[in-house]
Write a structure and sequence with these properties.
The chain has 14 helices and nine strands. It is α/β, with parallel strands linked by helices. The protein is globular, with a radius of gyration of 18 Å.
Length: 282
């Protein structure tokens, strides 16, 4: 890659991402004239059974995580309870809005299968055939609304060689299932596959989005921008990720991030464009 490339990857995993964040994200993108990449969860994002019973320990851990901003802080208790009880789907509830995102020159990819919470919490115990059937059904639905996607990402960055094999079999050109490192061919059983893994390059601890991590710590906007500018100073390509229901709602900081990227000489590209560049240089 000869020039400096920047891609902002968004995970649309909750309805609030579409109702609260996406209009503001679209406005910022329009102001700067840049494309972004959005991975869409077509199914539901909340699951009452997973928040109660055996899942209560994981639920409590999320609420007590001081390095992240939990969903309840993002949308408030009333909306959280309502959405959990109604369990309405995300992507398939906003097809016209997402088609407008695609028509505006942005990229849409597939984010998991039919239940974001089950994948995030119980992925390791899900049989491979269950994962394959779930993603295959979601992909066919995605194609009906938006055409064939280039990329796939796993909810909560929960992935392994089963997903690598599935992504390859279903014909995706890349996955986004990695934090840190260089772009690389995905692999299975020690053998390189045809599709690429495009990692997030700037992130908070674990898989917490960079800007959300700073938000949870109460970092000032000026300090965030100073830190971000230092992180991208010597890089030739950068991938940042977030969720429209948090980073999108904080559109003033998002504008400052975009301006910092442009001022540093980066060109905004989608993940699909990154994959094409990688294929061209392979």
């Amino acid at each position: 890659m000869s020039d400096r490339l920047f891609s902002f990857r968004w995970d649309i995993d909750h309805r609030a991402c579409m109702t609260d964040g996406m209009p503001r994200v679209m406005e910022v993108c329009k102001e700067f004239g840049v494309p972004n990449t959005f991975f869409v969860n077509l199914g539901r994002s909340t699951n009452l059974r997973e928040w109660l019973g055996k899942g209560i320990r994981g639920s409590r851990a999320k609420l007590n995580d001081m390095e992240a901003v939990n969903l309840i802080e993002k949308i408030g208790w009333p909306r959280f309870v309502l959405e959990t009880l109604l369990s309405r789907p995300v992507g398939r509830s906003f097809v016209p809005e997402l088609q407008k995102v695609l028509a505006a020159g942005h990229e849409l990819g597939l984010h998991g299968g039919s239940d974001h919470v089950v994948w995030s919490r119980r992925f390791a115990n899900l049989p491979e055939e269950v994962i394959a059937a779930d993603v295959s059904a979601a992909l066919e639905e995605f194609k009906r609304y938006f055409g064939t996607p280039a990329g796939f990402t796993s909810p909560g960055f929960k992935f392994d060689e089963r997903t690598s094999r599935l992504v390859e079999k279903l014909g995706f050109r890349y996955d986004g299932d990695a934090i840190g490192g260089e772009p690389r061919r995905a692999s299975s059983n020690g053998h390189a596959l045809e599709h690429w893994t495009i990692p997030v390059t700037i992130c908070g601890p674990r898989t917490i989005p960079y800007l959300e991590w700073h938000g949870a710590r109460g970092t000032t906007e000026d300090a965030v921008i100073d830190d971000f500018r230092g992180r991208i100073k010597d890089e030739s390509w950068v991938v940042l990720y977030g969720h429209p229901c948090y980073e999108g709602v904080n559109d003033r900081l998002l504008r400052r991030v975009f301006k910092t990227v442009v001022d540093a000489g980066f060109r905004f590209v989608t993940h699909a464009e990154m994959a094409e560049r990688l294929n061209g240089g392979a």
